[in-house]
Specification:
The protein has helices spanning 109-118, 136-144, 154-162, 192-196, 198-204, 209-234, 265-273, 292-298, 315-321, 334-337, 359-362, 364-375, 452-456, 479-488, and strands spanning 58-61, 65-70, 75-81, 95-99, 104-106, 124-127, 147-148, 166-169, 181-183, 240-247, 258-262, 277-280, 286-289, 304-307, 341-343, 347-348, 390-391, 399-400, 447-449, 461-463. By secondary structure, it is α/β, with parallel strands linked by helices. The strands form 4 sheets. Strands 10, 11, 12, 13, 14, 15, 17, 19 and 20 form a 9-stranded mixed beta sheet that branches. Strands 7-6-5-8-9 form a 5-stranded parallel beta sheet, with helices on both faces. Mean pLDDT is 84; it is low at 1-23 and 451-489. The protein binds 2-acetamido-2-deoxy-beta-D-glucopyranose (NAG) (11 copies).
């Protein structure tokens, strides 16, 4: 299931001199930064985090320790203040982690970004997915502070893992066989806000509750503002969005190409909130097609395509892969006629890693803003250029991020979203070409259901199976990223 990354670290070779920023590490927003005496039994966590949307974890506070629980597996992490005795009363503990942690490691890109969003990247000693990381400051830290996991050598990797207070990983990830492994599963959440709320999970390990709460409250407020403004302006003119991908024939899929439409829960959630409608063909999480004809038929009434294929390509290559030989002949598809074909690959690292797998997870409001911009490009008076989405049909360029884009490597990463409250949302102009094929009669209809028979009659439709072939045969950025894609497609 996991492929080694073929992109060599050299690809990221230090092309740019390290900016002379030493960045003082701030302790503002951290609590109980000192170890306590073993006899101290007062409540040392004045600021607590409570979970509002996320379903994957809970945090319970005790005087000198916290218990983070996974209700699905009953795995239990005990985070106890350094200096205090390990609590003995908690049952079936998966890991005891002394906090605040001085040294941490993360295998997945999304975990790394949460640490950066908390401003605790000064504790990070090892990272997985290093060659594909897009974050400018993590790239800079990787040049001389953070060591990538040596994941070709398990002895070495184990040693690296054990030298940290905590190792963030995912179930089924590489080298989980250490006593300090902690699983995070933000990618399984069914809402974008639920994913971002995992900042509280990570924050607990650093006694950074205040930072986590403040950041998440701001994201939540800004998200709700975007959602309510989009609903107010665009409820009766919701374009239909489909998240699609193509996999070419390879040795991994029996040399049989297939096409896929993704139905991840969080996508329903965020598409609705962006003032659009999610294409729905089945109740399944993803749907595979073995012929492009069947695939295209399902896309008959779609207004906007978001292509997530694991290849980097241009508009003509995408059309060819989708079975459209002549774009001019295919204007019976609204998304072709209006040229609304996007990929979430605008922000990339030099080696082709996608920013899409990083900040949008932590910053749900920025993700929503981008999707509003895709669905309703003129929502802001002065126009809007999405951060992550790139319109292939309009040949939007890719933006490459390098270490030189980092201004302060230890600063808390800023939320890239605009301040919704100060954005004057523009009403939809139904005669605008962007809306030329968007139905305007389906007020309140938040999901677009393709007639089931239309698709199934082809006989080539199948729901995704457990042996998910999307994991292999693509241009692979990194093992963990693939795993995340599997989980979210
Ligand atoms: C317990 O630790 C907290 C946090 O370090 C400190 O503020 C408090 O004074 C300590 N209490 C006692 C009784 O030592
Ligand atoms: C909880 O357990 C489920 C089932 O194994 C797993 O998929 C998920 O990642 C776990 N969540 C956390 C927070 O560890
Ligand atoms: C988790 O714990 C509950 C209550 O102790 C038990 O009923 C359930 O079977 C456990 N689940 C797993 C996956 O171990
Ligand atoms: C972090 O480092 C300090 C200073 O060396 C030490 O006193 C403390 O115990 C360490 N904390 C943890 C969680 O190991
Ligand atoms: C793996 O790493 C260990 C410890 O650094 C080293 O001794 C060993 O030679 C390495 N093995 C290989 C196959 O490179
Ligand atoms: C896990 O680690 C323990 C202790 O280091 C070792 O005995 C065991 O063989 C390891 N298991 C696997 C599957 O690597
Ligand atoms: C692979 O493709 C060949 C030729 O189309 C077919 O005969 C065979 O059954 C396929 N194998 C599997 C495992 O699907
Ligand atoms: C999508 O369609 C299927 C089958 O028509 C239906 O069961 C399912 O509830 C729909 N999903 C949503 C989120 O409406
Ligand atoms: C759209 O037009 C093309 C070319 O004429 C045709 O092959 C295709 O079947 C049409 N698609 C739909 C959904 O009508
Ligand atoms: C588009 O990509 C294909 C495949 O990579 C390539 O052959 C073709 O030259 C590209 N076309 C343009 C206009 O860049
Ligand atoms: C990174 O810096 C380069 C050079 O200054 C600039 O052209 C580029 O737009 C920056 N990228 C981002 C994403 O800000």
């Amino acid at each position: 299931m996991y492929l080694r990354c073929s992109v060599s670290l050299a690809a990221l070779a230090v092309l740019f001199s390290v900016a002379a920023v030493d960045g003082a590490v701030s302790t503002a927003g951290l609590q109980s930064t000192q170890c306590v005496s073993s006899s101290n039994s007062s409540d040392i966590y004045a600021t607590k985090s409570t979970v509002k949307y996320a379903t994957g974890f809970t945090i319970a506070y005790h005087n000198t320790y916290k218990v983070v629980e996974n209700k699905t597996t009953n795995s239990t992490y005990v985070l106890y203040q350094c200096g205090s005795a390990k609590p003995s009363s908690v049952k079936d503990v998966s890991a005891y982690i002394p906090v605040p942690v001085n040294s941490s490691a993360a295998w997945a890109t999304s975990a790394a970004i949460f640490l950066e969003a908390l401003g605790v990247q000064n504790t990070v000693k090892n990272l997985g997915t290093a060659p594909s990381l897009v974050s400018a400051c993590l790239q800079e830290l990787l040049q001389d502070v953070i060591t990538p996991f040596n994941d070709g050598n398990s002895t070495d990797t184990d040693h690296q893992e054990q030298s940290n207070d905590v190792v963030f990983n995912m179930p089924g990830g590489e080298d989980t066989n250490t006593t300090n492994t902690v699983y995070s599963t933000e990618y399984l959440e069914s809402s974008a806000l639920g994913r971002s709320e995992w900042v509280k999970f990570f924050g607990a390990f650093f006694n950074a509750e205040e930072r986590a709460n403040k950041l998440f409250d701001a994201i939540d407020t800004n998200y709700q503002c975007f959602a309510s403004k989009a609903d107010k302006e665009y409820n009766d003119i919701r374009p239909v969005i489909a998240w699609t991908s193509y996999a070419g024939p390879t040795q991994y899929n029996n040399n049989t190409a297939y096409w896929q439409i993704s139905f991840a829960d969080y996508k329903y959630d965020i598409v609705r909130d962006a003032g659009a409608r999610m294409l729905n063909t089945t109740g399944k999480q993803s749907t595979m097609f073995s012929t492009s004809q069947a695939f295209l038929r399902a896309l008959k009434d779609v207004d906007i395509i978001i292509d997530e294929s694991f290849v980097s390509y241009n508009y003509s290559a995408l059309m060819k892969n989708y079975g459209i030989a002549d774009v001019k002949q295919a204007t019976n598809y609204s998304w072709v006629a209006t040229g609304r074909v996007f990929r979430p690959d605008r922000v990339q690292s030099t080696s082709g890693g996608l920013g899409w797998f990083e900040a949008p997870v932590a910053f749900a409001d920025a993700l929503l803003q981008d999707l509003v911009g895709v669905a309703h490009p003129k929502f802001a008076k002065d126009g809007y250029k999405p951060i992550w989405f790139r319109n292939l049909a309009k040949s939007d360029p890719v933006t490459v991020v390098t270490a030189s884009n980092c201004t302060d490597m230890y600063a808390q990463r800023q939320d890239p979203a605009g301040v919704c409250a100060s954005i004057d949302f523009q009403s939809a102009n139904p005669s605008d070409s962007d809306y030329s094929d968007v139905e305007q009669s389906r007020t309140q209809d938040l999901i677009y259901d393709v007639s089931k028979s239309e698709v199934v009659n082809d006989g080539s439709l199948s729901s995704s199976s457990s042996s998910n072939p999307i994991s292999v045969g693509f241009f692979v950025y990194s093992a963990l990223m693939v795993a995340i894609v599997i989980a979210t497609l």
